[in-house]
Every structure is written in C-alpha cells, then in structure tokens.
UniProtKB/TrEMBL annotation:
Superkingdom per UniProt: Bacteria
Primary site of residence: endoplasmic reticulum
UniProtKB keywords: Carboxypeptidase, Endoplasmic reticulum, Glycoprotein, Golgi apparatus, Hydrolase, Lysosome, Metal-binding, Metalloprotease, Protease, Secreted, Signal, Zinc, Zymogen
Annotated signal sequence range: 1-17
Subunit structure as annotated in this protein's UniProt entry: Homodimer. The monomeric form is inactive while the homodimer is active.
Any Pfam family: Peptidase_M28
UniProt KW Transmembrane helix keyword: no
The keyword Acetylation is assigned to this record: no
Protein name per UniProt: Carboxypeptidase Q
Localization per Swiss-Prot or TrEMBL: Endoplasmic reticulum; Golgi apparatus; Lysosome; Secreted
PANTHER family with a match to the protein in the record: CARBOXYPEPTIDASE Q, PROTEASE FAMILY M28 PLASMA GLUTAMATE CARBOXYPEPTIDASE-RELATED
Peptidase M28 domain boundaries: 256-443
InterPro entries associated with the record: CPQ, Peptidase_M28
Amino acid sequence: MKKTLFLLLFFAYSSFAQNTDSLQIRKIYDEILTNGECYKTLTHLCKNIGPRLSGSAGAAKAVEYTKKVMEDYGFEKVFLQDVMVPHWVRGAKEEAYIENGKTKTKVPVVALGGSVATPLAGIKAEVIEVRTFEELKALGEAKVKGKIVLFNRPMDPTKINTFEAYAGAVGQRGNGASEAAKYGAVGAIVRSMTTLQDDIPHTGGMRYAPGIPMIPTAAISTNGANLLSKLLKENPKLKFYFKQNCETLPDAPSHNVIGEIRGTEKPDEIIVIGGHLDSWDLAEGAQDDGSGCVQAIEVLRAMKALGIKPKRTIRAVMFMNEENGLRGGTKYADLAKQNNEKHIAAIESDNGGFTPRGFGMVGTSEQISKVTVYKNLLAPYGLAEIGRGSGGADIGPLGNLGTLLIGFKPDSQRYFDFHHAKNDNLEAVNERELQLGAASMAALVYLIDKYGL
C-alpha cells in the first residue's frame, strides 16, 4: 500500500514538474520570438564592425562592442580575459590563372589562413592533381617535385549531415601544403570546402608541419577546381599561376568577453553558453560565428527579462581566436582550472544560425542521460536530435575538467554555402531561425540549471 501511494505521489509530482517546465519553456520562446534582440546585435556586429580576424582592428572593436552590450543589459558581471592571439594578414588581393598553351583563364583563389606568401612575381608551374595523401605519396618526388599540387577531393554530397562531409575533406586544407612539400612541390591549391558548384573560394586555417619547407597554399573555387581538372586531362603540361601577399605578424593582445548572471543557490557551479567572436577576413562573419555570439548573449537577456533567477551561475562567453589558433578556448579552460571553477556544462553555438534540430553531447553516460530525459519537453520545438555527438572547439578544453560539452545543432544543409567565404554576411541569416536557436539554448540552460547534472 505504501509503495503504491509513493508511486502515485511520484508520478503526480513528475506530471506537475513537467507541466511547470513546459510552461516556463513556452515563456522563454515567447519572449525571444516576440522581444528578441539578437538579430539587432548581429546587425551592428556585421554592418558596423565587419570582419574580425584575430589581431585585427575589427576583432578589437568587437570585443568592446559585445562587452558594452552585456553591460547595457545589466548582467551582474562583465569582464575580459587577456589572451595573446596569432596575427595573420592577407595583404593585397590574390591573383591566379590557368595557362593552357597561349590561353590564360583567370580563376578565383584566396590564400589559406596561416600560409606564407608567394614570391613577389608569383609562382607558375605544372600541376599534379590528387584526391588523397596516399595518392600523393604513390606519385612521389619524381612526379611532384617542382610542381603545384591540386588537392581536389570534394565534400561527399551523399552525406546528409554536411559536417560529416566537411570532416571527410578538410584534412587536405589543413595539411595539404606540408604533405605536398615533402615531395618537393612549390605550391598547393585546395578545392574549396563547400558542396556548391560556384565561383566563390572559401578560406580556412592551415598549418605547417615542423621541419618541412613552408610552401604557399590557396583555396580555389569549386568551379575553378573543376575547370582545372578538366583541362589537365586534356593537357597535363598546362601551367597554373598564383600570387598571394599574406604575412604572419607577431602575436597580438586580445580578449575573451564574458558576461554572467550569478547563481542564487549554487553560484560556484557554472553553465557556459558561447560562440567565437573572431571571423575570417573575407566577410562579416554572420553565420560563423556572429550568430553563436549573439545567441549566447540573448540567453542571458531573456532570463533577465523573464525574471528568472538561476540557481547556478550562467555565463555568456565570446571566445577569441577559434578560427586560427583556439587560443581563447584554451585560455578560458586554463583559467577555469587555475581558479578552481566548477563548470558543470558548456553549450557552444558554432554551426550557424539555422533552424534548430537538437544538441550533440560529449561527456559521461550519466551526464548525457540526465539531458536526454528532456526530449519530451524540447521535441515540440523541433529539437528531436538530442544525444551523444560533438560539443565544440572552444569548449573542448573544458572537457578535461569533467564538464559536459554540448554542441547546438541547427540544420546543416546551407552552412557550407557561406563557411569562410565572402558571402558570410548578415543577409545569409534569417532572423526567426536565429531567434529559435537562442530560445533552444535558453530552454536547455533553464532545465540544466533547475535540475543539475
């Protein structure tokens, strides 16, 4: 009899709690969809500041702007964390053409971030096309030395999750130059990381392996790569010319930007929501990752607007230098460890401001199971994909401290249309989709704060 009574009381309480949580989540969505200000914040970040590559004047302006936004909202504490960041500059616009006999055909290229410049006169050489490093190795020095290597492996269009397609191709961008240089290549050209067939090249970070000559490397548009590949089959002796003027300057001072609402019951337990404030230099960095930054700020704004007093401390963090160094994320985790801070969960939005689909998680089975129980509460808002997955680059270092890492998952189909390209501007972002993402993260923060992990 006692057991039956206990079960009845338990289910009655659970039903009451679910109903209470459902009503509060509805209020969160209503507030952000009706009064949300994240698109307004993103508009200023994009149109008044623009590109924000680490070490640039734009990055410094973005630090001051987002700090002021959070101060104006009245967050209880707003502060900066000092961090030294790489300072790479593109220089004058790149030039490239295919020389096929007497015909010169211009093609769009952009230097990859971190690359060295070509000689002042540029580089002209014959081309070797490969799709994998194994194929390059099989060709060897005898066929590669003195040539430009074209890495032409496309993103796999059959992958429904485009981030899987990206992961399957991006290695050639990051390591292609050093792999080509092992066999005496004088330059490397990499197919842009996008499934679109167009004339827009996409930049991105690359790295040089120690002890190997540093050769210049650039991304070529997908149409340019297709044309070069086609012409190579007709004339393997054609030549490719490119010129770029990039330079790596000494590391520069910058900052992570942090705003927080102090917890009322367990202030020493911290929940982080964040994105990276830096962007590549070709565009306004709207999807990557202005969207994530303004969504994080919006979570705290909405909580204050609704009078939600969290049990735990909630932080919005604008990480600096995700694109070409991850210095901000590393510094944040180092300081968290140094200050003995307990981060129970960290949510990162760095997959664009598109329609929300769910959350991926990295953590213990126990941690993940405590979040997956919220599926029924979140499913009405389109958040069906909640489970083990990936967290995010900036919050990754917090994993070593036992923090549950959560990656916000919007629809992925359009992200690589804009990723690291000149069209990643405000016009690429839909205001309602952006707000829905902010509301999704706010709902999850509310639940984790209320019930803990």
